[in-house]
Automatic annotation (TrEMBL):
Superkingdom as given in the UniProt entry: Bacteria
Family, similarity comment: Belongs to the UPF0145 family.
Cited InterPro entries: UPF0145_dom_sf, UPF0145_YbjQ-like
Gene3D superfamilies the record matches: Hypothetical protein apc22750. Chain B
Pfam family, one: YbjQ_1
UniProt source species: Streptomyces cirratus
Protein name per its UniProtKB record: UPF0145 protein GCM10010347_30680
Length: 124
């Protein structure tokens, strides 16, 4: 069973980088800690979605346009995290987290971060 077979996050099969929120990966041992990696993106909402969200918030319910934007934003932050891990020679990211903040009233900043490592299968 290799890293690509583990199913460690979106795109692990294509990227060869396992991404997990845990501090370890069962069946693998950490050979080397590469260090902290992150993927950052800032997105602003267009005027139409802001007006629509404002109207929707008055009557309640899911803000689907904003949900879709946030999912896309998190995926982009994750892709950048994986790119940085690969560029530094890692094949996995442990303890991955997201941090989301408002960026000066112009948009939303999403940061995916974790610890890049080189993993190897555990031997019995």
């Amino acid at each position: 069973m290799g890293i690509d077979d583990y199913g460690g996050g979106p795109g692990a099969e294509q990227t060869g980088v396992m991404v997990v929120t845990t501090n370890d990966a069962p069946g693998y041992r950490v050979e080397r800690v590469v260090g902290e990696v992150f993927g950052l993106t800032v997105r602003s909402r267009h005027l139409g979605s802001q007006i629509g969200a404002g109207l929707k918030s008055m009557i309640g319910g899911e803000l689907r346009g904003l949900t879709k934007t946030l999912v896309q934003t998190r995926n982009q932050a994750m892709e950048r995290l994986i790119e940085q891990a690969k560029a530094r020679g890692a094949n996995a990211v442990l303890a991955m987290r997201f941090d989301v903040t408002e960026a000066a009233d112009i948009g939303t900043e999403v940061c995916a971060y974790g610890t890049a490592v080189v993993l190897a299968p555990q031997t019995s």
